[in-house]
Amino acid sequence: MQFFRSCSRRILRVLFFQALMIVICNPKGFAQTAPLPKLPAPAIAFSRHVVVARETFAAEAGREILNQGGNAMDAAVATALALAVTHPPAGNLGGGGFIVFYQADRGKATTFDFREMAPQGASAKMYVNESGKLKPGHRKGPWAAGVPGTVRGLALAHQKYGRLPWSKLVKPAEKLAREGFALNPVMAGSLNAELFGRSEPDAGTKIAENLSSTDRLADFPASVSAYAKPDRSPWHAGEKLIQPDLAKTLKRLDDHGPDEFYTGLTADLIVRYSESSGGLITKADLAGYKAVEREPIRMEYRGHTIFGMGPPSSGGIITALCLNMIEPMELRQYGRSSDQAAHLVGESLRRAFYERFTKIGDPDFVDVPIKELISKPYAAQLAGSIDREKTTPSLSLARFPVIAAESSETTHFSVLDSAGNAVALTYTLEESYGAKCVVPGAGFLLNNEMGDFNLIPGRTDTAGNIGTKPNVIEPGKRMVSSMSPTIVVQHQRVKLVTGSPGGRTIPSTVLWMLLGALEFELPPAEIQMAPKLHQSWFPDKLILERSWPKQTLKKLRNRGWEVSNVSAQGDAHSIYVDFLKNFLVALPDPRRGEGAASGE
Fold this sequence. Notes:
Layout: H1 2-25, E1 44-46, E2 50-53, H2 56-67, H3 72-86, E3 96-103, E4 108-114, H4 150-161, H5 166-179, E5 181-182, H6 185-196, H7 221-227, E6 240-241, H8 244-256, H9 260-263, H10 265-276, H11 283-288, E7 292-294, E8 297-301, E9 304-308, H12 315-326, H13 339-359, H14 370-373, H15 376-383, E10 409-416, E11 422-430, E12 486-490, E13 493-498, H16 506-519, H17 524-529, E14 533-534, E15 542-545, H18 550-558, E16 563-566, E17 574-578, E18 583-587, E19 596-599
Parallel strand pairs: 15-16
Antiparallel strand pairs: 1-18, 2-10, 2-19, 3-4, 3-11, 4-7, 5-6, 8-9, 9-12, 10-11, 12-13, 13-17, 14-15, 17-18
Helix pairs in contact: 2-3, 2-5, 3-4, 3-5, 5-8, 12-13, 12-15, 12-16, 13-18
């Protein structure tokens, strides 16, 4: 018996030192030589590097840059520019977003803020009529647009951390626009819905979210010209979309560099359209726009370091608040799909979103108490008000009047290179196809991000319309966002790269990805596919994906929750690293009918 115990100890020691040597000899990079495993869908294994994005052509553009010797930042820039061509509901030149970047050789993270800004001609009540209600049409057209930040943000990130020339990163997108690409069923259906108000049967049943019968691409001649077939017949899957005006814009960015967008012919086209169509963006607004490198939100959870985006994004602070409240609760003892776990996560989100609405704004305009908000003592204070058995009415948290209520399209992608550098990038036009209007002659859509400000100052209602002061419109101010690009690191190695679209549901989606990996330690495919839920203070309800167990929903209602269902939450194209076997697991999210991984 002693002999067998001795052998067992020896075997355990061998296995331990084998695992240790993987980390010591290859602490950040990847050099997988053994055959890669076949993983349960949607997980896909890669050995060196990978890009996980909404759409195949864009993911492949990023992979090509990695194969040419580019790093994760180079690949992210190329992927973002390509998505502006292949995924117009959210991929963009005329919008804005955020990057979280982890530099493996330095063991450090940084972030880039390229959120849109209010034009200098904007004012707090510009969208409110004399009776205190929103003016019609405030969500579409140049009037709805903030000053775009995407091109300046990508350029700054590339300048600081890229390796390949800017021109090389623009070329894949320019080629896709000039030569065209085959529409997949989801994209064909989305364009048909915007142009004709319907999705053709062979174009798939899923179309872009947030569509309105009154706000469509069809309302703007330049948008129809950019996205309709020459004969104006409906699109079918497999047909090519060619965008010559967008190709010319990208060629100018290639030839003259990123400043061309803000001071050259492209800027002239934007301003000419804005001035002629009721918009506020001027040449001075464009020339004065600056992207900003900012310190990340840093949080610790069960031996992992998590880097998120700080203000004007609320995502990193919401995530930190929730994780700090949840960690002492030991959710793993209840099970991931239990009513107790759902209840405690919902109550944590309720409190985190209240803090978001009352304290977070553009840090250049608002003094945001970041250190306090992400501290564990502050989270413990908030968690102390959680009743573990029943709900807390959202109205009871407010220290100001909340009025009874009257009767977004974003995209995220993740990149990890062979040296262990990672990029989590989330950017948007706000709603699907933004303001619906293409800049004539330039071929790209403007955002409708001005709607992310609190448009009716001082008016907060139970439907979730917020009027708190930190996010009221001011000239030159960046609107608060929920975008939450996130990178998880353990022992200075990237373990998870994640993020999602979904408006206010974004932090909730990212939180569940983190809990799946770090709290419940699920297999990668389950991290992605396990059902998620959302709570954001108001509306005072818990919104769950339909795949939660029926028994859990029944028990939640017994606790006092008003429960509603959605078919899907989020679109979290993520990357998970298996440290023990030293390979990358791509996690494209199939919830919106697409998702692609491309790598080696």
